[in-house]
Structures are given as C-alpha cells and as structure tokens.
Structure to design on (158 residues):
C-alpha cells in the first residue's frame, strides 16, 4: 500500500480536540513508551505527547489498510468536530516516525518537533519535562496523555 501525504483541513485545535476525545473515549490510561516500556504495556505506541497512537483509528487504518475504518472515522470525525475529512485523510504512521503520512497537525506539532530534535521517545524522557510549558499546557487538557507520561517517568525511576 502506498500512502499519500495527508493534507486534511483539520486545524491544530481540531486535531488536539479530536485526538484527546478519541483517547479519552477509548479509556486509554496507563503506561508505555515504545521500546523502553514494552514489558509494561506491549500494545501501546506513545506519541511524543503521551497519546497512544495504537488506539487512534487513523493509525490503525493505515497499519491494517482498513478502508472501512477510514470511511467510518472520516464520517464520525467530520460530524463530531465540524470539519471536512475524507477517507484518504484517515492515515497516520505514528508520531515517532519521521517518514510517511501523519494525521492532521502531527507533521507541524511543536511538541513532536521538540522531542524529535532532543532525540527522546516521548516527553516523559526529556530532562526538561517538569518545566516545559508546551507539554504542561497540553497534558493539563488531556489527562490520558498525562497519565501515560507520568507512568513512563515512574517506570524510569525504578
């Protein structure tokens, strides 16, 4: 399957709201951090900000080439967040991948760019995590992401 770049009309606010709502709706709280924490949560794929890509329909649809999921998700997100999304917009290889398609705001996300430049797997592993305004503001509004990052930090301290 060849995935084309995603140029959705989803704004940064819309992306964050959509992603947070999806993660919250899925009830995904807990730990995980790519390779570092596979023993804790082998099915989690954390984005830089702590959201779990593994529960995102765009990530799942891209990974499994599930056209029905793309169609369903595009319709649901378009209605729920009052944006126009087409099925072809519902593709994402995951936050930590530098090549490939990223849903909505991911390719422009300041949190993601910062973490990639610092070469950390997620913000919890950054030495400036506690004092960072970017991640602090984000996790204040997205409790599941904060819970994931805090769990990673706890695991790191063990």
């Amino acid at each position: 399957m060849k995935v084309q770049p995603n140029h959705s009309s989803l704004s940064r606010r819309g992306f964050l709201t959509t992603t947070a709502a999806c993660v919250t709706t899925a009830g995904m709280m807990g730990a995980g951090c790519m390779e570092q924490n596979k023993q804790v949560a082998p099915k989690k794929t954390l984005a830089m900000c702590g959201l779990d890509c593994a529960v995102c329909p765009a990530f799942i649809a891209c990974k499994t080439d599930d056209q029905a999921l793309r169609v369903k998700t595009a319709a649901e997100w378009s209605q729920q967040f009052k944006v126009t999304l087409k099925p072809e917009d519902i593709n994402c290889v995951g936050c930590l991948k530098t090549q490939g398609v990223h849903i909505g705001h991911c390719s422009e996300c300041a949190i993601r760019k910062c973490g990639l430049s610092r070469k950390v797997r997620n913000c919890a592993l950054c030495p400036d995590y506690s004092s960072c305004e970017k991640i602090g503001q984000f996790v204040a509004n997205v409790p599941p992401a904060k819970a994931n990052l805090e769990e990673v930090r706890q695991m790191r301290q063990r």
About this structure: Residues 12-147 form one domain. The CA atoms of residues 120 and 126 lie 6 Å apart.
